[in-house]
Amino acid sequence: MHTNTAVMRSLAIIVIIAFTAWTITDAQKINPCCVKVSTAKVKEPIIGYTLQRENLPCIRAVVFQTESGFFCIDPQQPWVKEKVMQLRLAQKNKLSPSSPSSPSSSSPSRPVSPCLITSTVRDAQKINPCCVKVSTAKVKEPIIGYTLQRENLPCIRAVVFQTESGFFCIDPQQPWVKEKVMELRLAQKNKLSPSSPSSPSSSSPSRPVSPRLITSTVRG
Question: Which parts of this chain are annotated as the region Disordered (predicted)?
C-alpha cells in the first residue's frame, strides 16, 4: 500500500514538473502580431490566411498570405469576408477525400500562424505585424537567419531569429544575441564573398530574413 502511494506521488511530481517545463517553454516563445490593419485590397494571389483575435496592442485582423509576404487586413471589409469564405471552401474541398483533384481544389489555402513577424512596411497598403514583446531565453533550434527590428511603438526594438520551425522575437541587449548576430553576419559575408572557397562552414544558410517574411507556427 505504501509502495503504491509512493509511486502515485512520484508520478504526480513528474506530471507537475513536465507541465511546468512545458509552460515555461511556451512563455519563452514570444512572437509578434498585427498592430494595424489596411482596408486596401491585396492585389497579389492569396494562398492562405489566419484570423487574429484582439489582445492589445495586437488588434483583430485577417492576415492574408501571398508569395511575397503577409498583410494585416481589416476584417470588416466586405471583400475580406468574401475572400475568407472562398479560401475556407477551397480548403474544405482540398481536404475532402471524395473531391476530385483540380486547379481550384488544389489551390493552397493553409491557415497561417497568428504568430507573425516583419520589420519595415514597404508602402501604405502593406501593413504588416511586428514584435511587441521580446524574450531573453536562448533559441535552442539552429538559427538560419535574422532581422533587426527598430522601435516604432507599439512595435519595439528586437532581433528576430529565424529557424526551420518559425521566428523568435529576442531581446537585442542579451550578450548571446549580439554574439549570434555577429556570427550570422560573418557567415553571410563569407557566403557572398566570390573569393571564399566552398566549404560546409561557408555554405551554411545564414540569410537575413526578408522584411516581408512572417513567422509560421513555432513548435516546441
Answer: 93-112, 188-220
